[in-house]
Phage-shock protein (Guptibacillus hwajinpoensis), 223 residues
Amino acid sequence: MFSMFKRVKTLMSSELNAALDKAEDPVKMLEQFMRDMETDIREAETAVAKQISNEKMLKKKWDDASAMVTKRQDQAVKALEADNDDLARRALQDKKDHETKAETLKESYERAKTDADTLRSKLDEMKEEYRQMQLKKDSLKARAESAKTKTKINRAMSDIGGDDSRRGFDRMEEKVLQYEAEAETSEDMRSSSRSLDDELDSLDKNNGIDDELSELKKKMGKE
């Protein structure tokens, strides 16, 4: 189980690089890798729980066998006190059988405890590695999202300054210049027309003054 977890962890980097090369979504793949690790940890926890249960069961059997050794020893003493050698002999024989059983159970228990301790340690390592990979995943996820955002912004900025946009702005600029030229032309025409009217009006005014001046001269005998 632990070796499987190691393989998943090892694949995480290589598969992520492959995903990036194939333009796959690294965030989704990272989430899948983490789910795989979580599955491995749950399976490892089940294996550890079974081993601990086996360890406790062997410990109880060893304790029971050891207790029987003590019990049969005490019973043999009582049988001798009662002058019952046969009963004492049978108690001692059963005591010996339980001693052999207890010794075997002790060895089995010690192996089971060693295995359980090793599995606990491995499980702790798996959980610590998972925690580290979780932190790395969060960092990679944030970097991926940041890169996506930058790409979108850069593409948007590229579109804003694209050839189509520039050509469109150039056309609009030409139209504005055309409007301004038309406005200046109409202003010149209006000014030209107004100047002519002013000259004609001035001419009319001058003619009236000249007539009045001539009439005044006649009255004064100046002509």
Q: What stands out?
A: The two ends are 138 Å apart (CA to CA). The CA atoms of residues 75 and 91 lie 6 Å apart. The chain has a mean pLDDT of 81.
